[in-house]
Amino acid sequence: MEKKKTNSSYLYLIIGAIGMLLLVFGLLEYISFVGSTTTPSFLLTFAGFLILVHYIYYLEKKSGISNKVIWIKSGLLALSLLIFTYTFY
Fold first, then answer.
1. What distance, in Å, lies between the first and last C-alpha atoms of the chain?
2. What are phi and psi of 6, to 5 degrees?
3. From the CB of residue 73, how many other CB atoms can be counted at a distance below 10 Å?
4. What span, in angstroms and rounded, lies between the C-alpha atoms of 34 and 19?
5. R_g over Cα of the chain
6. What three-state secondary structure class fits 5?
7. What SS3 state is found at 83?
8. pLDDT tens profile 20-33
9. Does the keyword Transmembrane apply (predicted)?
């Protein structure tokens, strides 16, 4: 039996991207509040974020989303983060 591809996976892709952006904004706020990136809590938070990002990309590949869409999403996320950090910091 062949599985039908629905657009719901793209909805989850967008929700996951928004969630990652919110996590990065929280991490940037943490950096601005604490003022130091050498604390162990920052390193643990950053490592947890990296593990989460890799897991989300793994799930996106497993769900059948093409590499082209994943790379476009990654580029848009990186661009929005650069614009945000340049504008507010």
1. 52
2. -110, 170
3. 19
4. 23
5. 16
6. coil
7. helix
8. 888 888 877 877 78
9. yes
